[in-house]
Queue: 2 jobs
Job 1
Amino acid sequence: MHFEITDFIIDIVQNSCEAASKLVAVELHESAYYIDVLVRDDGKGMDDREIARSLDPFVTDRHKHPGRKVGLGLPFLKQAIDQSGGSFSLKSEKGKGTEVAFRFDRGQIDCPPLGDVSGLFLSILCLPGGQEMTIERTKTGLSYVLRKSELAEALGDLEHGSSLVLLKQYLRSQEEG
Amino acid sequence: MARMTLDELRALRESKRQDLARRDVEGKDIQIIVGMGTCGIAAGAKLTFDALVDSIQKHGLENKVLVRQTGCMGLCYVEPTVEVAVPGMPVVIYGKMTQDVAEELVQKHLVEHALLNNHIFDRPAVDIVAKASNASLGGAEGSALRESPKGGK
C-alpha cells in the first residue's frame, strides 16, 4: 500500500503514460478540507468489462508483465479512498481515453499525508514516453500550470542530470510561490 | 524565493552550460534507471529518485549522468530498485535502494567505480523478461554478477 497521496498519483499517471496516450492532463487541487486529483489521458481506454476488472487486484492485462497475475495501482487507490471516506470515479472509453478523479477528505483521521508535491511533479514529468503532459496545481494563495513540452524545450531534455537539477529547482520555486 | 519563470529557467540553463560543456557523446553517459512501478513507489522510489538527483549534483556529475525511470523490474521484494550502467562496468541492478543508500550508490559506484555490497540483485526476474530462455536464466534469486544481462523493460 502506498503511504502518501503523491505516491498514488504517480502510480495512476504512470498508467496513463503507458496507455499509448498523446496527452496526459493532471490536476492537483488542495483546499483546507479536501485534496482533489484528476488524471485524464487520451490513450487506449477500457471497455466496461476492463473497467470492472481494473479494480480487481488480482487482474492485470499481462501485456507488460507476461505471467504476472496482479495489478495493484487502481485497487490500492480505491482501497485508500474507501478507508478514509473520500470519493473516486473512473471513466473510460475504448479507444478514447481514461479519466480517474478522486478526492481525499483531509478532516478524516485516516486521510494519508499529501507528500512532497514538487518531487511528485519531477517524477511524473520525467516518466518515459513522448506524450505531452499538463499539470494544473492550486492551493490556497497559489496556482500554476506546468507543460512538459515547454520545460523540455527550456531545458533541452528531461533526463540529463543537469536538466533534472534545474527542473527540481524550478518546481520547488513554483510550489513555494 | 520568488517564483521562477520559464525565461529565468532558460537563462539559468545557459549560464550553467558555459561552466561545463555537456558531453553529447552517445553511449558514453552513465545511466541510472529507477524502477517506478507500483512496488517501487510503495517502497519510496520517488524519494530515491529525488535523492539521486541531489547526490549527482553534490558530486558534480550532472553533465555525465542520465537519470530515467521505468516500471517494475520484477524484483518487487527488494524495492526500490535502481539499474546502473557505467561505461566499462557491468550493468548492475541494485535493490533496497532507499533514499539514504542513494548517496552511497553515487559515491561508490559512480565516483569510485566500485560495487555496492549487499544491494546487488542482478537482473530482472524471469517473469519480466518476455522471451527469456527460462531454463538458462535460473530465476531472480541468484546474485552472482553476470555481464550486461539487460532484461526487457
Job 2
Amino acid sequence: MKLTHDQIAAVLADLTGTSAEGVTPDTLISSLEMDSLLIAEFVTILADDHDVAVSDDLDITDTTTVRELLTSFQRDSAGQSTVGSGAA
Amino acid sequence: MTGQIAVTGIGLLTPAGLGVDATWDGLTSGRSFAATDPLLAGLPVDISCALPGFTATEYIEHRLARRTDPFIHMAVAAAEQAVTDAHLVPGTADPSRIGVVLGVGGNSLLTYGAQHSRMAAGKFAHVSPLTVSRSVPSMAAGEVATYLDFRGPNFTVSSACASGGNAIGVARDLIRSGTCDIVLAGGAESGRSLLAAVAFARTGALSTRLHDPAGASRPFDRDRDGFVLGEGAAVLVLERTEHARARKAASRAMLVGYGAAADAHHPTDPHPDGRGLRQAITAALADARLDPADIDHVSAHGTATPLGDPVEALVLRHVFASAPPPVTALKSTIGHALGAAAAIQAACAVLSLCHQAVPPTANLDNPDPEIDLDIVTKAPRSAALRTVLCNAAGFGGANTALIFQTP
C-alpha cells in the first residue's frame, strides 16, 4: 500500500500536537521541533501502522520537507531512504 | 541547617477526584470508587480504582502527553497544582535550590507489556524508541523538573508501596541539610495495566470480589481479601518555614516527623510482629519529639490484605498502648496507588488537619474481631486534630511513618 501525505501528516500531528491540516507538503520537518527520539518514534510508527520500512538512521536536515520525506518513502518502501541526501 | 519544614502547597489526583477539593469531597462521601475496568476486561481481576475522566492533555501539553506514560502525566499535573497552590511563581525562589523527589514503585508496565510483545515477536524495528523514556521511574521527577524549570536535586525513590513516604522523608532531609530551599515531594503511579493486574493477581494480593467492585476493598473488615489496584499522584511543596515566610506563602501544615525501617524478613509478607513499621513509627515520633499520646489521628497503610491489616493493628496497639487515636484507611475508597499511595495519604492527612476531620473508611461492615482499633466509618468524623501519623509499608519490607502537624 502506498503511503499518502495524509497518513504522514496524521502521524506527525499526533506526535507533535500540531493540527494535521497544518502539516502541508512544504512543511519543514525541522519546524515541528522533533528531537532524535521523536524522529525515531515517527519511523517506528510508520513501520508499525503503515508497514513502511525506513532506515533507523533517517537523515533529516533543516531543509527537509514533508514532501521530500513522502517521496523518499514511496520510492523505496523497503527502507533505503535517501531523504536528506539531496536526491529528493 | 535546622528549622521547621512547612507544607505550602498540595497537588492531588486520585480516583476520588482530580484536585485537592474534589478528592476531599470524594473521600468524605464514604463511598468506594472501585469499579469494573474496561481496560482490564478479560483478566482474572478486572476491577480497579481509576482517575475519573482524566485526560492528560487537559493538564499538560500534547507533546509531553504523547511521549510519556500516565504516571508521568499525573506527576506533572499534580506538581503544577501544588506549585499553584503554593503560589510559587517565577522570581520568588531560586530554581537551582528547588528539588523534585518522587516515589514510584516500579517501571510502567503499560509500556513494557506492549513493547515486550513486539520484541518477543522478533519485530525489533517496531519497538518504540520511547520505551525507556516514557516508563522508567526517574522520568516522573525529571519531567516535573523540566516542565517547571526546577533545577535542584532530582531523583526518584523506589521502595514499592512505601515509595511516596520515603520520597517525602528524603525531600525533607534535603531541606534540613541546607541543600534545597524547596522540594516538590510525593509520588505517582498507575497500577492499571494488563501486566500489573495479572502479576498482582498472581501474588494473591488483589481482592477477587469482582461481583461487588465497590465493596472489594475492605480494610480491617472480617471479609477482606486483598486490595484493589488504583492510580494517582500527590505532590507536596515542602519548604523551610523562613523561606515560606519570606515569600509570604501560607503553610497548610508542618512536616515534623519521619521514620523509615526495614522488616528484614520476607519479600512480600510483613514481619508478624510488624517490627519494621513499629520502628519507623517510633523513629518518626522521636524525630518529631512527640509522645504517642500527642498523635490525634492515624492514616493507616490498611491495604485490606488478610496478613497486612492485623499486623498494622498489632503495631498500633503496641505503640499507642491502651488508646490508639482514630484510624482511617483511605485505600477502602480510592484503592491502592502503589508507589504513590503513601504520598496520597500524606496529602490527605494535611487536608484532615486543614478541615479538622477524619475521612471515613468504607466497607467496614463487620470489623475483624481480632482488630481492636477506633476506625472511623460511614461518615467523616470532626475532631480537634493537631497531629496526624501516616503509615506505609511495601514489598521488600520497607516501612515509613510521617507525622504532620497544624502550623
